[in-house]
């Protein structure tokens, strides 16, 4: 049994000059070393919460796991010191590590659904670490677990532990994982993006219960996330990371109100895109009238009596959580899922419900951009072929003419001519999405459907894409149907908004009108779930809620 | 971007040995020292300068028979593989892209055929069909086509649901473009690696049939048949039967090495230039 | 066991029986491809048309195909497999002893190969990417390439003929002492083991690796569990189903491998019986043997699926 100082004040974790490396195996080249974390120092006092923030590849998860001396997927700790409760973990050997893991430091993973063993009951897994480290008896541990289930707002806390992981929802599993971490009363918990995989309304509930649990148990925490607004709600201090290096470190108020580094400033001002709301024109370019669509031969209705209009050169944002039917609306408009009732007017004519019966001009003027740019491009075609195909197909362009137009489109999306000969695998995530935009533009469309086009991207990259889309809208006078779950995005680019809930449009109108009270219950819930970069926002939002989120 | 320097040594060994076997098979009449069916010495003579591999159970030169045997073995196996590939992949792609009752019907039929072990099914059919080269190729090719069908269909189904295929459909592309320009280039690499494995399977399968006396019939002989001809010698300490058996093993291993390399090379690329 | 699991298991068994019925049709049809018929093969080419006609009527060959099929199927269900054309003997009684011999041989191979394969598979995972692992994957490559008769005759040549440790011909007879019986099947069991071992090892390795790379194994590690505790508490309960599946699929593989091995060692089992009668074009025997082999193969596949269903926590504990 490792001795744990009883003193509950002072320095808990002291990471000095941490360096972590991994070996990468690029195909066709000799393996080479990659530095993941470079000279980062972290100090954490008892009972404090430190937020680690950065984009993907910043090394924030790697640093978080280093507090347990754990390198995921072949990452090695190659330099520095990790001192926990006064002992240097790097010199302790595997015995010491086993003693501190699960007892002094616990971990909450991003995907609790994968982190729980599917074959064992939740209670067994929640109490396992406490029993393993002989912190208490089985009965005490179970009592403690039930108390934690109650504190974290889980339904039927007395019997919740008797269930298996697949029997409870994602939001509940995430809370159960927090209970698992708290059950052995550790000194430190590492939260690794614990709310990122959840729906927006559930995210806030889980965040609030995590915050309460931290406050009540006085445990210290490393809170890792890419969302500055989220971390601002729970952290005392924030460290901004980029490319494995520290960019800025300070208390939460200073970081979000007076950032000193330019990069931090960019993260703070993300989603603040100036956009003047346009008024609707006389005739909409696309008019969806009372559409009902269903899967399984009319059995499962996923769209119920939906009507919206989109005007040329403007953006309609369709907002909702997963399962709200927003992507189905896109499938109905494109003809992939012919609606069973209602009709669609496009550009002054009635669109045939089925894709197969539409004219080539219908297809050309209605383009689509996907969420995952990776799978939206044929990996065996060059960028030139991908952008050039619509030119050939719709306009019969060939040879020099086509190449010139491809170059022009590449210029429009702020990429150079040299990209025409590259393959999608050689591009970054943001570049791939730009190519997809160029492919849509090549058809000279009147309307582009954008299906969650920024949700797989880092915030700054996503901002770049949004700005590009707005610029292109001005140049080409194209309309967007913008499908998203992210209200912050909506606020920055929309002219009109449709809020969807369980297959129905619950609120619809010009942006200023939709975002002005009085709200219906669901819109209120949705709006109150978007984290704002304000201290104390979370408490206010939870207090003013009228409707429970889908996770409960 | 095939870089000669990047080919691992195991793949080189496989490529070279496979090439030697192919050379012997194609140029058999010019390479073989003796005519294939002629008795040239005593029964089961040991290896010597005159008969490099010794003589067989009827006193024929074993090396010459091995070279002609390579021809028959590789020819039948290659034809059966080609048949199974063309049939299996065309039907598999069609089932995946067209779907509906066609897919249901073919897939259930393939399930049925695959519920019977291949060797047993072949034995049942060969009990009533004449044993000749055409029958062998047809039986082996058709039975093996079920496996190719499954793979081709699975690969094509995976690709068919990708967004880039949906994008092509939304663009208004026809079925021909979708199969040949969107799906085929992405399905090619797993299929090519599978081609090697199917060929090995065909060689082993043919050899087993001939060894059981139900494959290539005398006076012609493939390697499996030659094992059968000479197996009685083993108990007298005469290893003649081991030579064709070893040849089958070496050919199978060589092709396996090449297929393994192709598979590794393509999986590490993940698209792009391949 | 809960109701949905029972329902799925029942469905799977029903599917298997249906499949077996379809297979019996396929085997029956497969042996009717050629013109010519049994009467012709019994009486030979020189038979008079009158004699042929009489025999056909006596044997019921003039009935439509489906009537003959139903009669054949009815016979099988009541334990009557018909009579062999070449010898005139009752097929069921000739098969009984041989079926038992074949099962004995396959069982022997299973007893040796299953524990060995699982142990080696675990070793390969423990020393992943090390020498042991490389050796095992190399063996796997070789074993998919070596024909049974190569390993078989190599063993006979060296172990039986040169060293004279075991007999080269595996004769077994009724009432043979158990020890002698074991010594007789030692070499065929070795060959069969080599046939399935590497494949089983590779699949076991893949199954365990798949489990070990799950996120919940990382969770267990971060709770401070020792490697041994991680394997027994978290990896094993999830790995057992895929491993049983691997074993069953390879046993099905064994059933087929047995045919060639029996011929190599002149072992009096069902495989050799089948091969002999294929050469004699003795259709009733071929039909009976084919159906039995297919039945064993299908049953093993059903067991593999049932294990997967029963061990799936999602099905055992529905929402």
Could you please describe the fold and organization of this structure?
Helices cover 37% and strands 24% of the residues of chain A. Chain A is built from 22 helices and 20 strands. In chain A, strands 6-7-8-3-9-10 form a six-stranded mixed beta sheet, with helices on both faces. A six-stranded mixed beta sheet of chain A has the order 16-17-18-13-19-20, with helices on both faces. Chain A has a four-stranded antiparallel beta sheet with strand order 2-1-4-5. The longest helix of chain A is centred in the middle third of the chain and has 18 residues. Chain A is globular. The mean pLDDT of chain A is 88. Chain B is mainly alpha-helical. Chain B has one domain: MetI-like (MetI-like fold), CATH 1.10.3720.10. In chain B, α6 runs antiparallel to α8. With 319 residues, chain C is mostly helical. In chain C, 38% of the residues are buried. At the B-C interface, α4, α5, α8 and α10 of B face α1, α7, α10, α11 and α12 of C.
In short:
Chain A has 552 residues and is α/β, with parallel strands linked by helices.
CATH superfamily of the domain at 91-282 in chain C: MetI-like
What is the oligomeric state here? heterotrimer
Q: State the helical fraction of chain C.
A: over 70%
Q: How much of the residues of chain C is beta strand, in percent?
A: under 5%
Instruction: Provide the CATH top-level class of chain B.
Output: Mainly Alpha
Provide the succession of SSEs of chain C.
HHHHHHHHHHHHH
Biggest interface reads: B-C, 44 and 53 residues
Mean pLDDT over the residues of chain C:
82
């Amino acid at each position: 049994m490792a001795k744990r100082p009883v003193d509950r004040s002072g320095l808990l974790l002291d990471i000095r000059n941490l360096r972590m490396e991994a070996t990468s195996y690029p195909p066709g080249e000799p393996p080479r070393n990659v530095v993941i974390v470079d000279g980062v120092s972290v100090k954490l006092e008892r009972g404090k919460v430190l937020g680690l923030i950065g984009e993907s590849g910043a090394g924030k998860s790697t640093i978080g796991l280093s507090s347990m001396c754990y390198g995921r997927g072949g990452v090695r700790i190659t330099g520095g010191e990790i001192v926990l409760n006064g002992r240097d973990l790097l010199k302790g050997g595997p015995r010491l590590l086993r003693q501190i893991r699960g007892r002094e430091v616990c971990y909450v993973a991003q995907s609790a659904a994968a982190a729980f063993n599917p074959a064992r009951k939740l209670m067994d897994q929640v109490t396992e670490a406490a029993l393993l480290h002989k912190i208490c008896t089985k009965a005490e541990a179970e009592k403690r677990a039930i108390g934690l289930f109650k504190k974290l707002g889980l339904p039927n806390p007395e019997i919740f532990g008797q269930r298996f992981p697949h029997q409870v929802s994602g939001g509940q599993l995430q809370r159960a994982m927090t209970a698992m971490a708290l059950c052995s009363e550790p000194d430190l918990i590492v939260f690794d993006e614990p709310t990122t995989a959840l729906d927006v309304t559930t995210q806030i509930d889980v965040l609030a219960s995590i915050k309460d649990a931290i406050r009540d148990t006085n445990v210290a925490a490393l809170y890792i996330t890419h969302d500055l607004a989220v971390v601002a709600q729970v952290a005392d201090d924030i460290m901004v990371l980029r490319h494995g290096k520290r960019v800025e470190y300070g208390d939460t108020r200073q970081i979000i109100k007076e950032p000193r580094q330019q990069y931090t400033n960019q993260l703070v001002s993300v989603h603040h895109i100036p956009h003047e709301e346009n008024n609707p024109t006389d005739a909409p370019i696309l008019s969806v009238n009372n559409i009902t669509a269903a899967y399984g031969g009319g059995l499962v209705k996923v769209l119920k009596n939906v009507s919206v209009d989109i005007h040329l050169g403007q953006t309609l944002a369709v907002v909702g959580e997963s399962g709200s039917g927003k992507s189905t609306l896109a499938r109905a408009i494109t003809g992939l899922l012919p609606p069973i009732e209602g009709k669609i007017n496009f550009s002054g004519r009635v669109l045939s419900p089925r894709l197969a019966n539409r004219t080539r001009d219908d297809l050309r003027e209605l383009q689509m951009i996907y969420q995952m740019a990776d799978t939206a491009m044929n990996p065996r075609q060059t960028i030139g072929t991908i952008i050039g195909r619509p030119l050939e197909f719709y306009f019969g362009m060939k040879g020099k003419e086509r190449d010139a137009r491809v170059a022009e489109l590449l210029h429009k999306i702020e990429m150079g001519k040299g990209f025409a000969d590259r393959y999608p695998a050689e591009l970054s995530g943001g570049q791939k999405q730009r190519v997809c935009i160029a492919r849509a533009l090549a058809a000279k469309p009147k309307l582009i459907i954008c299906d969650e086009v920024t949700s797989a991207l880092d915030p700054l990259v996503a901002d770049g894409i949004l700005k590009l889309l707005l610029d292109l809208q001005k140049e080409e006078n194209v309309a967007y149907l913008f499908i998203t779950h992210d209200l912050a995005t909506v606020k920055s680019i929309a002219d009109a908004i449709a809020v969807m809930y369980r297959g129905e449009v619950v609120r619809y109108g010009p942006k200023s009108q939709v975002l002005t009270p009085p709200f219906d219950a669901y819109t209120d819930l949705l709006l109150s779930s978007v984290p704002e970069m304000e201290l104390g926002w979370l408490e206010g939002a939870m207090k003013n809620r009228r409707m429970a989120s889908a996770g409960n | 971007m095939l870089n000669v320097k990047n080919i691992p040594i195991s793949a080189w060994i496989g490529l070279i040995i496979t090439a030697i076997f192919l050379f012997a098979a194609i140029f058999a009449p010019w390479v073989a020292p003796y005519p294939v069916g002629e008795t040239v010495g005593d029964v089961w003579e040991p290896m010597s300068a005159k008969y490099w591999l010794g003589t067989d159970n009827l006193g024929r030169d074993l090396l010459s028979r091995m070279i002609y045997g390579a021809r028959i073995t590789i020819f039948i196996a290659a034809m059966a593989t080609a048949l199974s590939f063309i049939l299996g992949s065309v039907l598999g792609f069609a089932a995946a892209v067209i779907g509906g009752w066609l897919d249901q019907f073919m897939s259930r039929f393939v399930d049925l055929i695959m519920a019977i072990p291949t060797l047993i099914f072949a034995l049942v059919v060969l009990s009533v069909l004449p044993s000749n080269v055409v029958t062998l190729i047809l039986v082996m090719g058709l039975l093996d086509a079920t496996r190719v069908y499954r793979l081709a269909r699975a690969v094509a189904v995976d690709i068919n649901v990708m967004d880039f295929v949906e994008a092509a459909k939304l663009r208004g592309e026809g079925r021909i473009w979708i199969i040949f320009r969107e799906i085929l280039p992405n399905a090619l690499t797993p299929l090519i690696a599978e081609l090697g494995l199917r060929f090995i399977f065909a060689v082993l399968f043919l050899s087993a049939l001939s060894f059981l006396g139900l494959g290539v019939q005398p006076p012609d002989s493939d390697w499996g048949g030659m094992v059968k001809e000479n197996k009685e010698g083993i108990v007298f300490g005469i290893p003649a039967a081991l030579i064709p058996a070893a040849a089958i093993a070496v050919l199978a291993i060589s092709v396996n090495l090449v297929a393994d390399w192709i598979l590794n090379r393509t999986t590490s690329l993940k698209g792009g230039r391949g | 066991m809960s109701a949905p699991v029972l329902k799925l298991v029942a469905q799977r068994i029903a599917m298997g029986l249906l499949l077996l019925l379809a297979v019996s049709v396929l085997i029956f049809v497969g042996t009717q491809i050629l013109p010519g018929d049994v009467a012709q093969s019994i009486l030979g080419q020189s038979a008079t048309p009158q004699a042929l006609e009489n025999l056909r009527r006596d044997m019921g060959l003039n009935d439509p195909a489906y009537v003959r099929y139903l009669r054949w199927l009815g016979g099988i269900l009541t334990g009557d497999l018909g009579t062999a054309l070449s010898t005139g003997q009752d097929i069921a009684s000739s098969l009984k002893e041989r079926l038992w011999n074949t099962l004995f041989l396959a069982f022997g191979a299973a007893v040796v190969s299953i524990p060995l394969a699982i142990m080696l598979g675990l070793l390969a995972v423990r020393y992943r990417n090390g020498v042991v692992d490389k050796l095992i994957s190399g063996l796997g490559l070789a074993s998919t390439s070596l024909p049974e008769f190569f390993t078989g005759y190599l063993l006979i040549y060296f172990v039986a003929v040169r060293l004279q440790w075991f007999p080269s011909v595996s004769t077994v007879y009724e009432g043979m002492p158990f020890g002698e019986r074991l010594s007789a099947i030692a070499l065929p069991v070795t060959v069969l083991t080599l046939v399935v071992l590497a494949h089983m090892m590779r699949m076991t390795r893949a199954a365990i690796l798949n489990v070990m790379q799950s996120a919940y194994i990382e969770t267990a590690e971060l709770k401070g569990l020792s490697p041994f505790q991680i394997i027994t508490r978290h990896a094993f309960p999830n790995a057992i189903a895929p491993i049983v599946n691997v074993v069953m699929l390879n046993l099905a593989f064994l059933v087929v491998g047995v045919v060639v091995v029996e011929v190599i060692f002149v072992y009096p089992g069902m495989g050799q019986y089948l091969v002999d009668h294929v050469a004699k074009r003795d259709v009733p025997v071929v039909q009976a043997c084919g159906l039995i082999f297919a039945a064993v193969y299908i049953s093993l596949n059903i067991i593999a699926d049932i294990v997967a269903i029963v061990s799936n926590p999602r099905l055992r504990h529905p929402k």
